[in-house]
Design brief:
By secondary structure, the chain is of the alpha+beta class. The protein has helices at residues 4-17, 58-67, 90-99, 120-123, and strands at residues 31-36, 41-45, 74-80, 104-108, 114-119. The protein has a 5-stranded mixed sheet. A hairpin with a 5-residue loop joins β4 and β5 (114-119). The protein is globular and about 40 Å long. Bound molecules: tetrahydrodeoxyuridine. The site of tetrahydrodeoxyuridine has 13 residues, from α2.
Length: 134
């Protein structure tokens, strides 16, 4: 469980990250702030590409940055969009459950205000998880 102060901080950081989005095609800015179980925050933004499928979402940018720094256990992520209604795409949900089956997923608006607060298990019920392959 994270505190309300931590939630607000993550929402604000995610909202600020929207300024770094590379979005010449969609003009849809998404920012993310990921809190690890060890207490570190990793940030991300969406990065588009002229070859559209190569685009990476803000959430996966943050998660992959964390993984590449040796962090694999996540407490919560805040995802900021203009209206605060930008739910994570299916690919990002799948990447979340790969590492943290119970992480908190918050949405935030352009000012960083938290607009939704859910658990990844609600967003991807019946997920295909790593334990199936063990
Ligand atoms: N996008 C994200 O960053 N996260 C999501 O979960 C959904 C979509 C980005 C990708 C692309 O740059 C833009 O939003 C429009 O799809």
């Amino acid at each position: 469980m994270i505190s309300n102060e931590q939630k607000q901080e993550l929402g604000k950081i995610a909202a600020e990250m929207r300024n770094l989005s590379y979005i010449p095609y969609s003009h849809y800015a998404v920012g993310a702030a990921l809190l690890t179980k060890s207490g570190k925050i990793f940030t991300g933004c969406n990065i588009e590409n002229a070859a559209f499928p190569v685009t990476i979402c803000a959430e996966r940018t943050a998660i992959f940055k964390a993984i590449s720094e040796g962090e694999k256990e996540f407490e919560a992520i805040a995802i900021a969009t203009e209206d605060g209604q930008g739910y994570p795409c299916g690919s990002c949900r799948q990447v979340m459950v790969e590492f943290s089956l119970d992480m908190e997923v918050m949405l935030a608006d352009a000012e960083g205000k938290i607009t939704a607060d859910l658990n990844i298990s609600e967003l991807l019920p019946g997920a295909f998880t790593p334990d199936k392959l063990h």
